[in-house]
Design a protein that fits this description.
10 helices; ACP_syn_III_C; globular; alpha/beta; 32% helix
Length: 324
């Protein structure tokens, strides 16, 4: 039976590191408040002119090197982002150009912080079709360009970064896709970014105006705590598994306090949860991709189950299980 697995992974973050004290110089906040509420100490911010496609390209090159592949070996490129370079061309198309991946077609997926999980699920289906063999799935975000830096309730959370995996056709061996479950609940207000209002009249002064990222933090917390632990329990139960049967969890890096809540709700130790938010902040869809690569670099996953769970604006959420 056709299947897919992860062959290699990598990540890339901008070189500039912004501390909580740095933010306190421009926003009415402080290090103690940020750490107590979010767990974040630092974040990487793109201050050298790197856009989302640039971060994605760097992560993709590193992943291809890990897989000992050339760009021409790739059939499909999926970039998950809600901070694209622009609406058109797609960020994925720019990455395809940058890589000179002449045999690949490319497109973006926009499901905010759940993007990487949705991207993996999508690539898995294309590979299972038998038409495509190798896919690059890249999660890349330059959240900083979408921030209102007068809004301390959002700005302190976010950082920039990218992670990438190479998926290949294989129903056996390490890193196979063992199951998934995805959900969407339409909600336009709790989290939104980049909205452009339609016209109300014709005028030579009309020019597109885009809004900054905005979230209602308490509503986000309530949605996640009400839905995500039960989603994980249900997903695993449908596969005759319990949380204790999972060796490592990689949740969306939204907020360290949220990750701690999920761990407690699942009655699982926090050391089973891959976390990079303390150093990187919330990198939206890239957080899980970065966490996955960091886990692969730090431990031997042979014989392990790894559950990736994303959740974000939309409201979108889902999980994908890998067996190594």
């Amino acid at each position: 039976m056709p299947g897919s697995k992860i062959l290699a992974s990598a990540h890339y973050v901008p070189s500039d590191i912004v501390t909580n004290d740095d933010l306190a110089q421009i926003i009415d906040t402080n290090d103690a408040w940020i750490q107590s509420h979010t767990g974040i100490k630092t974040r990487h911010i793109s201050l050298q002119g790197e856009n989302t496609s640039d971060l994605a390209t760097q992560a993709a090159k590193l992943a291809l090197s890990q897989a000992h592949m050339k760009s021409e070996d790739i059939d499909l490129i999926i970039v998950t982002t809600f901070t694209p370079d622009g609406l058109a061309p797609s960020t994925a198309a720019l990455v395809q150009r940058n890589l000179a991946a002449k045999n690949a077609w490319a497109y973006d997926i926009v499901t905010a912080c759940a993007g990487f999980v949705f991207g993996l699920s999508t690539a898995d289906k294309f590979i299972r079709s038998g038409t495509y063999k190798n896919a690059l799935v890249i999660a890349a975000e330059v959240n900083s360009k979408m921030m209102d830096f007068s809004d301390r309730t959002s700005t302190v959370f976010f950082g920039d970064g990218a992670g990438a995996v190479v998926m290949t056709a294989d129903a056996h061996g390490d890193g196979i896709v063992a199951g998934e479950e995805m959900h969407t609940i339409g909600n336009a207000d709790v989290v939104h970014s980049g909205r452009i209002a339609p016209l109300t009249q014709l005028s030579p002064d009309n020019y597109p105006k885009i809004d900054a990222f905005s979230q209602i933090g308490r509503d986000v917390f309530n949605e996640v705590t009400e839905l995500i632990p039960q989603h994980i329990y249900s997903f695993l139960e449908n596969k005759s598994l319990k949380p204790s049967d999972v060796d490592y969890f990689i949740p969306h890096q939204a907020n360290l306090r949220l990750i701690e809540y999920i761990a407690n709700a699942l009655n699982e130790p926090i050391d089973k949860f891959s976390t990079n938010i303390i150093r990187n902040g919330n990198t939206s869809s890239a957080g899980i991709a970065i966490g996955f690569d960091e886990l692969r670099q730090s431990v031997n996953l042979k014989g392990k189950r790894v559950l990736l769970t994303g959740f974000g604006a939309g409201f979108t959420y889902g999980s994908i299980l890998f067996e190594f």
